[in-house]
Amino acid sequence: MGNAGLKQHYETASKTGVLQISNNKPKLREIPTEVYKLSESLRNLDLSKNKISCISDDITKFKLLKQLNLCDNSIQVLPSTIANLKKLELLNVSHNSIQLLPHPIAELSNLKQIYLNNNKFKQFPKPLIGLKNLEVVDLSYNKIVEIPSGMANFHAMELNLSQNEISVLSEDLHEAPRLKILKLEENCLCLDTIRPSLLRDSKIHTLNVDGNLFESKQLAAVEGYNEYTERYTAMKKKMF
Length: 240
Prior knowledge:
By secondary structure, this protein is α/β, with parallel strands linked by helices. Helices cover about 15% and strands about 10% of the residues. The chain has helices spanning about 5-15, 35, 195-200, 225-240, and strands spanning about 20, 45, 65-70, 90, 115, 135-140, 160, 180-185, 205-210. Strands 1-2-3-4-5-6-7-8-9 form a nine-stranded parallel beta sheet. The model has no long low-confidence stretch (mean pLDDT about 95).
């Protein structure tokens, strides 16, 4: 997309509140200054599939932003000022090189969906614990080794941790108040890591554990499996 095409995009975005400069030719290496000039009108910003490596503190200017898509770039660090995007509901920074989330991200009280898959996380990002409007968290394809304690305050309904290196699940994971879908395929879990409380006492109706250090059918021998299958069956009935 040449400069003339971008100019047209900016003019349209000033009216619609939506700007998409995805997979630009040539690829963007930073957020253009013209984008910041739209900060008072943008609600949806898509800069995916570029080569952006740094997000400046000026990101804080987008006070109305509800959706921010920065997937498939070259980002290593998110600025703590991203926490000033108080209206943000969706953040997609998948397919980057991020290892940590800035702690102030815990202040994004309206955040519903966050996509962190295909990054370089080695630890579960604790700033997500306590965000009460979270619905979907995708952390698949990272190098996380355990789910930490404190999950009783994790409010997402869906958590994807497939394709990590997880061998430890927190003892309070079953207390996650809204967690219904837990994806743990292709990790390093042993059968005895799946506590009876997770099957018996949680709200999880969909637990995916294929590709771990046990056969999925062995799960049927774990105490609480019957209660889990009852929730699964009830969920299926609601769908039809």
